[in-house]
């Protein structure tokens, strides 16, 4: 199959949409297949209600409308008026002021819908700083919210709290580096607006999954000085953040929402695509009823060239002009639906995202589901895509939490086999060609319980959201360890802390790409709220004043990320195959508590929840690396005999134990065959020499 590129999605007719400046004038190009007329409306720089000029666009080939005018200068505030036919699928209104879908800047007037596009003159001195291009096997993602990360940080300049500049403040860069993460993944930064229903309840859309424009950074995350300086200054602050993070070797990944827009269902806000060409940009039935596979009212129609090209052009802009290193696609299955609204892993857009030369070396991560029919597609994205692995999340939570809860009342429901598969890279989910790096492993994310709340609450507590606790997931696979929420019981607090260490240890020692949710490394809480999407408050902002146990937990994470970097056996790029030499894979051997090779019947025996996992690299270059990980998944302590059948092994050097409250600096050397007491529900990592 020929490579899918921007040129193959709609051809040259769809090139250079939006405003391009040249020779002292600007050319505006807008796509609308069904429009009868398109008008450019220019506004006063200070009064966005004052129209200063109107110019008609002329229709060109391929459904593109175009005008070249001296009115289009850097800083010009403008909008579109589009008229067209009436009938099923069409909602044209010649009086509505619409945003340019390709506009690079935004200005807001007084009202909820009083937005104007702004002409931007691109220009930024990157100072020779280039993308870090961290290999996937060395990538450790830190998922956070622009505002929440720094809003309460005592060492970040107060004027930069909750801003793009704050994300790249020296105090934050020092922290990222010490923690050992390699990439910051930011919740949506494309310009977004809160839903009217939230505003009516005195709440807001904190997470940002309600996109207004795919080419503009969210203005509210810029510092006050940048906001006063206008869209160019906001853009410069965003780029400055990226440059500083890149200087520190830290990549920037964006959580992007292309599956729907803030226009909601029919009758919702009409701000851009709906008024420009509703029939082409949104999925709908022949009678104009929307096909909603996203749960928010509309779904972008990527089965049309214009819809797919809008997504691809936006990605190219952020990857090139903004120097973004990767993208995590919200509800990515929606992007891969064809003209029949069915998911197709060979969808031209999914293929183009991975094959377009402008996106080479960009990390591509799918949230591999949506809420439509056939929407769950974990393991079914094209080669070159990585995916959020919900099967990993569920199995790891089960093993360390819900299984333990169940065992207290009866006995453990399952053995260690399914957990081992996830630990080793989820080979039963991803093909050999894709390998373990197709799996983005996570135990928590922005959506759901925090790590602390996962071990402290059995049920959600979302009353603050104003939906009678009906919102948010009911199935959390959590375990409060005996008391719901806060407690002073030292025994319960100790076992909760160990559970957090087990979950983080599993995450950072598993094959695949680990993603840590910001704040989990020090056990932040949202007081049991597992759907804080509308909570822009201290509930969702990170608190940087920590107790000793939180500092200890952070040190565990920093040690684990360092050990992951130092031991390639923990991060294979390919699956090993029995009897074959597969470079960049890890050969894995599995032993029971007696140091004997695991037998087939032991894997799924609920009475056997202890294993020893040995992994040895097959390097492309350099020396081999070997590790041994002991996992014990019941609350009763056990004696484990270290294996004595690993070829050439003379010693096991202890590197980390989840049973330790504070990470140990002592690296004890143990001998093959030595018996080691293992506390209940714990892990222990060794280097094999």
TrEMBL record:
A Pfam family (short name) is: CBM_48
CDD domains named in the record: AmyAc_Glg_debranch, E_set_GDE_Isoamylase_N
Instruction: Please give the InterPro entries that the UniProt record associates with this protein.
Output: GH, GH13_cat_dom, GlgX_Isoamylase_N_E_set, Glyco_hydro_13_N, Glyco_hydro_b, Glycogen_debranch_GlgX, Ig-like_fold, Ig_E-set
Instruction: Identify the domain of life.
Output: Bacteria
- The answer to whether UniProt assigns keyword Hydrolase to this entry is yes
SMART domains referenced in this protein's UniProt entry, alphabetically: Aamy
- SUPFAM superfamilies listed in its UniProt record: (Trans)glycosidases, E set domains, Glycosyl hydrolase domain
Q: Which residues form the Glycosyl hydrolase family 13 catalytic domain?
A: 139-564
Q: Which UniProt keywords apply?
A: Glycosidase, Hydrolase
For this chain, the family text in UniProt reads: Belongs to the glycosyl hydrolase 13 family.
Q: What is this protein called?
A: Glycogen operon protein GlgX homolog
Q: Name the source organism.
A: Microbacterium suwonense
Q: What is the lineage of its organism?
A: Bacteria, Bacillati, Actinomycetota, Actinomycetes, Micrococcales
